[in-house]
User: Fold this.
Amino acid sequence: MVVVTGGGTGGHLFPALAVAQALQARGVEVVYVGSRRGLEARLLPDSGLPYFLLPAGKLDRSAFRPQEGLELLWGLGAALGLYRRLKPRLVLSTGGYAGFPIAFVAEMTGAKVLVHEQNARLGLAVRLLAKRAHGLALSLPLALPPSLARKARVVGYPVREVRYPKREARARLGLPLEGPLLLVLGGSQGSLELNTRLPPILKSLPYAVLHQVGPAFLEGMKPLEDERYRIAAFVDAPLAMSAADLLISRAGAGTLAEAAYHRLPAVLFPLSPSLDGGAQLANAQLYAKEGGAVLGAYEKLPALLEEALKGLDKLKEGMARLSPEGATARLVDWILEVA
Assistant:
């Protein structure tokens, strides 16, 4: 049996789900362990995977909250009981507060653990787990201390490897078949900042737009919709990225990995480092360095979009260099090798 754990947000959950389902397809017994309050609590019931949801304290980077510490201790206790019951041969953690408790317990008992980092810098949970882990799987090449570099492999970020012809994707989405199409993504929950600042700019430009605003913002954003500016609470990423010519988004690891798989250039507005420890800024800078994306600025956005659309072919080459194609299979092979 293999335990796969990780979640809290889509960036940690979706690669873990992809690997868990791929292991299951190869005949491996898999159990998913997540957090009671993470995104996985809503999505796992329809995943086809056996699963358990545990308490998991979310440690804040800016302030210690006693209740979170208590929940973390409670979660570690619950994880120890579950680990003794399941007795897995290996635990894979994709990080996040949901991916810490059972992986930490497994390490403390001397079991085999692999951890997977999605971003261009190590997250807190991964940093805490990596020292004792059997291996460290990376989505992107990172500079690491020798003790970690010896156990690290760049495998990529597991994504749904599905593409559609552009005209078919646009037809299925009810979008114009001709002309540039901009795709706006603010993460699975949407982004208040992007939802507020982008429409006044983009609606003044001669481009079609598909804007994923997030479920919580849909009602308030709907009045902005017209034939050329489409609003959606959530979009199917492979379909939307197959349809689009240019992405405008935050710089979450999952969004960027999917964009790279689809060779979809991006204009990026990463979260402030004070909110995520600098992970999105590091992601954005790496993708810009590789030539697949540019860092956004609201006051310069019309000119940035015009320049990006003129240079799409070169930007696509940069994205192709970062494509995670085959990442799921590579990580599954490593898990089976270790287990």
